[in-house]
Amino acid sequence: MDNPIDMLIDSFQQAKAAGDTNGPFFAMTTLDEFGFPMSRTVTVREISAAGIVIYINRVSPKIEQLKLNPAYELLFFWPSQLRQFRVRGSYEIFENEDQRRSWEQKPYAGKLYDLFQVEGLAQSSELPSREAYLETAAEISARFPEESSLEMPHELVCLGFQPDYVESWYGDMKDRLHDRRLFRLQGDGNWSEQVLVP
C-alpha cells in the first residue's frame, strides 16, 4: 500500500531538484462567507509526515474563512514531473522556532511586506489606487530603514494542514494512460487506496 504523503514529499523534492518553477507553490482553495470558492497561490514551507505548513498572518482572509468553514482543498501541480496532488483534511494554527529562523533569513523587502500587512493595511484590503499602496509601503520603509530594527510581527503564525484525503495524478503524455489514485486516511492511521479512471 502506497503512502500518499511519502508520494507527495518525493514529488515535491524531485520538482525542486528539477528547478520546477511551481516547486515551492500550491493553490489553496477556501470558501468565503457566501460559500463561493476562493483560490490563491501560496508558498509551501514544509511537507512532512506531520503535514503541510505555510506561514501566514493570523488576520489573513484565509484563516478567517477557515474559521467560518474548515473545508479546504490544496492543489499541487509540478509540470516537470507531470504530477498533481489534491489534498483535503484538518488544519491547525501554531507557532514554532523554525518559522522565526526562516523569517530572519528573509530578504529585507520581504520583511517589510510582512510589516506592511500589520502596520499598513491587511491583506486583501481595498485600496483607492496602486499609488496609495506604494505610498504606504514607502512610509513603512522610511520608518524601518535598517534591517536590524525589524522584528517578526506577532501576527505571523504557522498554518498546518493534516491530510486525510489525497488524490494523486501521474501524467503519461506518451499514451495518455495516466495513473490516478484516491487515498483516504482510516481510523487506524493507515491509508485506503482506490484506483480511479483518469
Structure report:
The chain is an alpha+beta fold and 198 residues long. It has a domain at 4-99 and 155-196: Electron Transport, Fmn-binding Protein, Chain A (Pnp Oxidase, Chain A). The chain has helices spanning 4-17, 61-68, 97-104, 108-120, 130-143; strands spanning 25-31, 37-43, 46-48, 51-57, 73-78, 83-94, 156-170, 179-185, 191-196. A hairpin with a 4-residue loop joins strand 5 (73-78) and strand 6. The longest helix has 14 residues, at 4-17.
Task: Output the keywords.
198 residues; alpha+beta; Pnp Oxidase, Chain A; nine-stranded antiparallel sheet; 9 strands; elongated
Short précis:
The protein is an alpha+beta fold. The protein has helices at 4-17, 61-68, 97-104, 108-120, 130-143; strands at residues 25-31, 37-43, 46-48, 51-57, 73-78, 83-94, 156-170, 179-185, 191-196. Strands 1, 2, 3, 4, 5, 6, 7, 8 and 9 form a nine-stranded antiparallel β-sheet that branches.
Poorly predicted regions are none
Order of helices and strands: HEEEEHEEHHHEEE
Number of helices: 5
Structural class: alpha+beta
- The assigned CATH architecture of the domain at 4-99 and 155-196 is Roll
| Fourth-tier CATH superfamily name of the domain at 4-99 and 155-196 | Electron Transport, Fmn-binding Protein, Chain A
Can you identify the CATH class of the domain at 4-99 and 155-196?
A: Mainly Beta
End-to-end Cα distance, whole Å, is: 20 Å
Q: How many strands? A: 9
Question: Main β-sheet, in a few words?
Answer: 9 strands, antiparallel
Global outline: elongated
**What's the gyration radius in Å?**
19 Å
Helix share of residues?
25-40%
**Beta content:** 35-45%
| CATH fold title of the domain at 4-99 and 155-196 | Pnp Oxidase, Chain A
Mean pLDDT: 93
